[in-house]
Amino acid sequence: MINVIVELSKYIILTLMIVYTFHCFYTVRQSDEEDRNELLRQQLLLIFFIDFTAFLVLYLKTFNFKIVEFYAEMLLFFAAIQILYRLLYKKASILLLNNMCMLLSVGFIMLCRLDISSAQKQLLIAAGVSAIALVIPVMIRKMRFLRRLTWVYAGIGIILLAAVFALARTSYGAKLSLLGVQPSEAIKITFVFFMASFLSRDTSFKAIVQVTVVAALHVGILVLSKDLGSAVIFFVAYLVMVYVATRNVGYLALGIGGGSAAAVVAYHLFGHVRQRVSAWKDPMAVYQNEGYQIVQSLFAIGTGGWFGMGLYQGSPESIPVVKNDFVFSAICEELGGIFAICLILVCMSFFLMIVNIALRIINPFYKLIALGLGVEYAFQVFLTIGGATKFIPMTGVTLPLVSYGGSSLLCTILMLAIIQGLYILREDEDEEFEKRKQEAIQRLRAGETINRTRQI
């Protein structure tokens, strides 16, 4: 009977995920507020039923009561965050909030499947950070002096990265964390704020040179620390923000050329890079060593097929560091390729929403912040999934909100809280514009009335 439930569950979860993904894109197109709110409520129901089905299977396969306790705590967390955002921020983007809850749900399901203690830690971190993040949107609206802290952001980033390079121990071939925290995750935010603060005031050639020097220091320290995934994310964010701020194709071309040359130099200088490229080119040739991880990942993806093996029917634990770097492969194996594609589309919906917010914000400082954070999020998703599927060499970054990792989860939730603050700012700008428009129309009508009276 349990095997029948497991087999049926994967089709139920897949169907619910497909409907949720459709809602992500269809909701944006709804102009009627009542229809949009109804779709958002349906999304919450879909998340609930996906979680209920998945955790029912997890419990039936293990009869571990900790899974039931975790499920109840997770539901309480989601209910609290949904209610508090609606109470505190009437103008918040509920679609953005729903997508965050969906991605967290997928992560919690897979972490419970792989390691219940890791799932409990992840939930605790998510709850704590979300409580802090609730004050971020109001800070974005009220603290107008943030754009003047240009060199503070640069100093914080460089000092913290230098401390990691000097003091951190090497883990998996790279220096990543200091005292259990990965500072590069937090510096993604300060780096974007630095770039936005500088470029919103000045886009002259001299300013671009100064920005490039600071960005090069960030990326250079990360490369020396062998944290290549973060280095690439910083570089892409720098490149896109400079291009958008200046609209100069020459800077974009120089950046791409310089980045390509730097990649070649890194390949020849660092054996760590050569190993990952070798594993990417032909993992079977180095299966016993650096190719083992990617080969196991590809086996998992291929075994899952379109519909997946079902929860607890596969063997994702055979992939080294699966809950951190290769959680996407575990999802493919047990929940299926179609589910994984839907997950990618939800992430894409996330990014498109952030870009839409950036395009509609008038203030250039906030516009660049939204764009920079969106690019960092999207490129991190690309690096993680691309590495797991052998599309690109593995870079060792996590899938935001899904993979296990306290620093990544903390900074992603804070990043999304900043985006919520920018979304509310955009709504404020729209209201102010509409108010001025109505006032102008009233003045125009009043002027016409006076002219008619004079003519009479």
From TrEMBL:
Cited InterPro entries: FtsW/RodA
Q: Where does this one sit in the cell?
A: Membrane
Q: Which GO terms describe its cellular component?
A: cell division site; plasma membrane
Keyword vocabulary terms for this entry: Cell shape, Membrane, Transmembrane, Transmembrane helix
Q: Which organism is it from?
A: Blautia obeum
For this protein, the parts annotated as crossing the membrane are 12-28, 40-60, 67-88, 94-111, 123-140, 152-169, 205-223, 228-245, 251-270, 291-315, 335-359, 368-389, 401-425
Entry's Gene Ontology BP terms: cell division; regulation of cell shape
Q: Which domain of life is it from?
A: Bacteria
Q: Which GO terms describe its molecular function?
A: lipid-linked peptidoglycan transporter activity
Q: How does it sit in the membrane?
A: Multi-pass membrane protein
This chain's protein is named: Lipid II flippase FtsW
Gene that produces this protein: ftsW_3
